[in-house]
Specification:
The chain is mainly β. It contains two helices and ten strands, in the order H-H-E-E-E-E-E-E-E-E-E-E.
Length: 181
């Protein structure tokens, strides 16, 4: 695949994660929805996206809800979140592939590839699902033709560990035993 297409698709996936929620009727003001769709009906309580979003003064959902799109939220979740170990999730807004777990010594290691191209930037977050547990102790390394490089880590406002990673890279995530606050 051409690099321009890989970059376009990876960026599309990244922004679709935020944009897709706008297709669910529960996330839209009631005044935006068609009162009587041409096909089917709209049930705001169902997590089924609308078939159509309209612009301007036209009401969305004129075609009803797309039952075949009801699995979209599950697909996005399973493609962008990985359970690393009990109480820890890994999130990446670019597609990941070749995800492999290795256990070594005191910690655990996962290696994976990030889609896209080196021009694109992805975000990887390590999320502690139980905030009462100790602070995560992790390091992320990128592997390039020049060798292995430890990536800088920041803490998000929610307390997650966050890394910024270029696309088209092989990375290694090393988790050590948790540390105290």
């Amino acid at each position: 695949i051409r690099p321009s297409v890989r970059l376009l698709l990876s960026e599309y996936v990244r922004y679709a994660l935020d944009r897709a929620w706008s297709y669910y009727p529960a996330n839209l003001p009631a005044a935006m929805l068609a009162g009587k769709p041409r096909n089917g009906h709209i049930d705001r309580n169902l997590a089924i996206p609308l078939e159509d979003l309209q612009e301007g003064w036209s009401h969305s959902g004129q075609v009803g809800q797309e039952v075949y799109g009801s699995g979209c939220a599950f697909v996005m979740t399973t493609r962008h979140y990985r359970r690393l170990r009990d109480g820890v999730l890994c999130y990446c807004d670019y597609p990941l592939f070749d995800f492999v777990k290795k256990s070594r010594g005191r910690g655990q290691t996962w290696s994976f590839n990030i889609a896209g191209t080196r021009e694109g930037r992805s975000r990887i977050r390590l999320i502690r699902t139980d905030p009462s547990r100790p602070v995560l102790n992790a390091a992320l390394f990128s592997h390039t033709s020049r060798g292995r490089k430890k990536l800088t880590c920041a803490q998000s406002a929610e307390g997650h560990l966050e890394f910024s990673v270029r696309g088209e890279q092989h990375v290694e995530l090393r988790m050590l035993p948790d540390r105290k606050g």
